[in-house]
Design brief:
This protein is of the alpha+beta class. About 20% of the residues lie in helices and about 40% in strands. It folds into two domains: about 40 residues, no CATH class; about 110 residues, Immunoglobulin-like, CATH 2.60.40. The chain contains four helices and eight strands; from the N terminus they run ααααββββββββ. It has a four-stranded antiparallel β-sheet, with no helix packed on it. A four-stranded antiparallel β-sheet has the order 5-4-7-8, with no helix packed on it. The longest helix is centred in the first third of the chain and has 15 residues. The chain is elongated, with a radius of gyration of 20 Å. It comes from Promicromonospora citrea. This is Secreted protein. Keywords: Signal.
Length: about 160
């Protein structure tokens, strides 16, 4: 059995940084501010961002305030992620496939609800739902519900009491 040599993530990151540094023009490297994050740290952070996070999903809704698994038969098949943007007073939610459901087309839904507002979306998706956004809910408690059709049933999870 053939086995490739193992390289640590630190070694891979260093190799990527070295390759990237060779591709940069000398003037760009010289004009970088002294307080900039080292390229190795930036590379590792980008590679370590979990699927469905604001960085990878591109939802740009601020800080994640809830991350709850949706389970079927003891296995996690999706995540419900809720984000809060203090600058805009908006809250966002998205349901992201994971594990055995990643890349598998299933009905996937997400709902975000306050006392007097509600927004939801649901569609046949392979990776994640579109985001739902409630604007103007800064200081208001909201609840979020995410779901995925798995094993012939709609599997759901709910997060309540997301205040602030």
């Amino acid at each position: 059995m053939f086995s490739a040599p193992r390289t640590s993530w630190r070694g891979r990151a260093s190799a990527l940084v070295a390759a990237f540094a060779l591709a940069l023009p000398l003037t760009a490297a010289a004009t970088a501010p002294a307080t900039a994050v080292p390229a190795a740290a930036a590379t590792v952070q980008a590679a370590a961002a979990p699927a469905g996070s604001a960085a990878t999903a591109g939802i740009g809704c601020g800080k994640r305030i809830a991350h709850k698994g949706i389970h079927a038969g003891g296995r996690r098949v999706a995540w419900l992620d809720v984000y809060d943007n203090r600058n805009t007073g908006a809250k966002c939610a998205v349901t992201v496939h994971t594990g055995p459901s990643w890349g598998v087309v299933r009905h996937t839904a997400v709902r975000l609800k306050s006392a007097n507002l509600s927004v939801s979306t649901g569609a046949t998706e392979a990776y994640r739902t579109n985001r739902v956004v409630l604007r103007g809910v800064d200081g208001v408690c909201v609840a979020a519900q995410g779901g995925i059709s798995w094993g012939g049933k709609m599997r759901t999870t709910t997060v309540r009491g997301l205040c602030g």
